[in-house]
Each structure stands twice: as C-alpha cells, then as structure tokens.
Write a structure and sequence with these properties.
With 305 residues, the protein is an alpha/beta fold. The protein has one domain: DHBP synthase (Alpha-Beta Complex). The protein is 31% helix and 15% strand. Strands 1, 2, 3, 4, 5, 6, 7, 8, 9, 10 and 11 form an eleven-stranded mixed beta sheet that branches. A hairpin with a 6-residue loop joins strand 10 and strand 11. Helix 1 runs parallel beside helix 5. The longest helix has 27 residues. It starts with 5 loop residues before the first strand and ends in a 40-residue tail after the last helix. About 25% of the residues have low confidence.
Length: 305
Amino acid sequence: MTSVSRSYDCADDEARRDGIADAASTVRKGELVVLPTDTVYGIGADAFSPAAVASLLKAKGRGRDMPPPVLVGSVRAAHALIEDLGGHGQDLIDEFWPGPLTIVCRATPSLSWDLGDTQGTVAVRMPMHPVAIELLKETGPMAVSSANLSGRPAATRAEEAAEQLGDSVSVYLDGGLCEGGVPSTIVDLTYAVPRVLRSGAIPIERLRAVCGTVIGEAKPRRRPDPEPEAEPENAEGGPEQGAAAEAGDGAQGAADSAGTDSGKDAGTDAPAVSAEAPERGDAAAEGPESGPGGETGEPSARRSE
C-alpha cells in the first residue's frame, strides 16, 4: 500500500467500522474503493456517477465496450434497477442470491447513469460477503469489476489488488483471502430462454434445475481441418471417386451449416450489456465478475466482474 491509499483490516472490528465509513464517504465523493466479495476482490465506484465509472474503467485499462456489473445490498435495490426480470429472473434470485450469480436484464429506462455501452441492459448481482453487503447498504448500488488490470489475474487478496491498482484506488478494505476465487456465472435474461454468457461458480446444471431450458455459453468455432491433397484419378476416369468426392463435399457443407447454426443458437448475437463478476456489480466484485481470472471477453456481453 502507498501513503496515498488507505487500507483497513476488516478482521479487526474497530478497523472494519472505520474502513466501511471511510469507503462509503469515498464512494460518495466519486473516488474508487476495493472491497472483498464471495468470488474475488472488486474495484467499485458510485454507479450513478459517470465520472466515477469512467475512472474505474481507466484504472483497469478498459473501454466503454466492457461496462461493469452493478452490485446491490438487497433484492429490493435490484428491483429498482431492473425493468423486466423475464420469466425466470425472480426464481433465480430466490435460489442463488446472495451468491455468485449475475443476471443481465433490461435496465429501468428512467435511471440517470452511464455505465458504458450497455444497450439498455444492466448486469446485477448481490454478493454473499458481510463486508461487501455492509458497504453496499451504506452507498447504494455500486459499479464493481474485478480488482485487477485488464488481462491480469483477478485478485483474491487485498495486497494483490493494491499491487495492480496502486493509488488509483483511495480505500482498500482487506477482508483476507476470498475463499471463492471463481467469478460469478453470468446469465442473460433478455431472451425468452435464459442463456449463459460466462460460465462461473454456479454450473449450468443448477440453473437448469430452476429454469428448465438454459442455453450454454457460446464456444469459439473450431477452424476446419485443411483440405486433403487430391488423390490421383483411377484408370477408369474415377466415377466412384467422383461420387465419393461429392459425398465428402456434402458432409462438409452440412458440418459447416451445423456449426453456423449452433453458434447462432448459443447466443453469439446477444445484445451488448453492461460480467467478475464484483460483479450492475461482480461482477460480476462478481462484483468482480469477469472471465477466468476476473477477465471476460464474451463478444455478446463484454461483461466483467
């Protein structure tokens, strides 16, 4: 830690009280804080301060195309941010909150905020960590992403976050080791059928136990194998060979078609949304919610905890 940043050991009751008070005041002033969550450490800002959110993205080395999730301290706070939970949102909240699940929904249109290029959506999570919840109840919703530089591993200790973020953060709340260490699962509820944008702490089997059908995370298409070298024609002019070649071409075409269709079904055309989590977030800190190691790069969501 540097002399500019302030750190509080939340294992000590008095230091925890002082740290929560300082962190809440810092967030209200538009500055950044690092907080522990049930997944990884998150870097957080006032979700309703565009300047603070811009500072968060700058500290991580990210652009507006990767908006942070929002963390909330209660289900009621989440309802105020979300216009439509879809057919399964409340069931998922009842089953997995507080916990490592980030849900992407249509945001309430009247909200005055700017999380980035969200296309009218918001990623929201309620973490299961006492320090995070205590802070969120003081500050209200916070934009929270994983406490690391973009492309670097997510921090599971406050010291790891400080090594990467330094004086860009005003207050570090040290809650010890984050036992989870795995980012939140991000589920897009803006479609009739829920779809996983990022795999995480909650496996898809548990989601399906609640929702029934859930579309899995889109996987990159495997590049086709190189074309085989042409075989020499047979002495008869090769009618059998020609038929085989035609059959092979047909199979290849079917495979290409199946690959294209499966990619579409998997959600590659999902809307860009504001996942690390931290965790609108971790983002999700699930708030921090980003892909493995806190960073995600789903083309459909561009979310990170």
